[in-house]
Amino acid sequence: MAATSPLDRSTDTDTRRRIIRATAALLQRQGYESTSVKRIAGAAQASPSSVYHFFPGGKEELAIEAMRHGAREFGEMLARGLASKADPAEATAACALLLAEDLRRSDWSDGCPVAVTALETVGRVPGLQEAATRALTEWRTLVAARLTEGGIAPAAAHTLAGTVISMLEGAELLSRVTADDAPLHDAAVHLSQLVRAAPRA
Amino acid sequence: MAATSPLDRSTDTDTRRRIIRATAALLQRQGYESTSVKRIAGAAQASPSSVYHFFPGGKEELAIEAMRHGAREFGEMLARGLASKADPAEATAACALLLAEDLRRSDWSDGCPVAVTALETVGRVPGLQEAATRALTEWRTLVAARLTEGGIAPAAAHTLAGTVISMLEGAELLSRVTADDAPLHDAAVHLSQLVRAAPRA
């Protein structure tokens, strides 16, 4: 990086951030394969050469960084849902309802930030598969901690948290494809049922 | 089609079928965007021009046909699972376990035949989105019918069947990405719990 003054550095940071955000949005909406560096540059109002300046590893390096960014944002949404209700069953349901709201508001495009890219590249782009695994694990840990805090036995909380992530991912897929948030609303009901039935610590 | 003799016709049918199967396998493993007609032709041991001969609409037409084929096969797997146990809760769990088995045997590549392509093209390729919606609806109808037959009240069976498909889709995503079938095994347990708790007709 050739930045020498504080002003240059802040502009650099802004451009880098804009590129990451644009990539995250494209990965979330259409996945990795149809997202070109040219398209990313256009969406970020940057030149392709500045994309390569910040990410010499090109599309793969950038996608890994963008998945991290998207994973953090999705984690924040989960944390918001989990903190919104005292009862762990209602808190879990709230995550599905927040996701439904986001999806509907974005006209069914802002779904999971890792699902499409992960499925497209599994077994073919190890760096992306690793980033996706890390994201899924972080989200699961977040949910498991909240369930344990809500009185669920730790082993049950861990298993159930995995199912919460599976259900959110699957219901989001159904909701996006059918342009209808009913699958996420049904997921909210069924997830809270499972949490209510889980063994207590 | 230029087939004139019965032999030609049967060869034509074979080639067409081989092209559809190869496309279905590629869509299942890597999705629509990175699957080219050239790659399909290679996998089907056919020439690109014969792919266009059978599918003048090119990749999109072929992908719709391949999704139909994949959806039928996935539906057959569900039907096998659903018929394998008398108890509807165990029958539902069996679907998740069959999917886990298929995934593990294929080294985590043979997952849902529509998920990747559907997520990649939602809002962008209406024909594929329609084919995916049709597949998801057929599978849900299959599960709902089995649950109703097993004594679950029709409205609950319909909602629950949607959740079964969501859960299978999501747990399959987690299993593929993490190369571990635990999410599908956990899904089996949680789905059977939900079916057991469902209101009876």
Describe this entry's structure for a reader:
Two copies of one chain form a homodimer. Chain A has one domain (6-197): Tetracycline Repressor, domain 2, CATH 1.10.357. The first copy, chain A, is elongated. The longest helix of chain A is centred in the middle third of the chain and has 26 residues, at 58-83. Chain A contains nine helices and no strands. Chain A is mostly helical and 201 residues long. At the A-B interface, helix 6, helix 7, helix 8 and helix 9 of A face helix 6, helix 7, helix 8 and helix 9 of B.
Beta percentage of chain A is: under 5%
**CATH homology superfamily name of chain A:** Tetracycline Repressor, domain 2
Assembly state (oligomeric): homodimer
Global Rg of chain A: 19 Å
CATH architecture of chain A: Orthogonal Bundle
Query: What is the terminal separation of chain A in angstroms?
Result: 53 Å
Shape of chain A: elongated
**Which fold name corresponds to the CATH topology of chain A?**
Tetracycline Repressor, domain 2
Order of helices and strands of chain A: HHHHHHHHH
Largest sheet of chain A at a glance? none
What structural category do the secondary elements of chain A indicate? mainly alpha
Number of helices of chain A: 9
Number of strands of chain A: 0
Summed over residues and divided by their number, the pLDDT of chain A gives a mean of: 94
Largest interface comes to: A-B, 48 and 48 residues
Question: How many domains is the backbone of chain A divided into?
Answer: 1
Keywords:
homodimer; 201 residues; mainly alpha; Tetracycline Repressor, domain 2; 9 helices; 77% helix; elongated
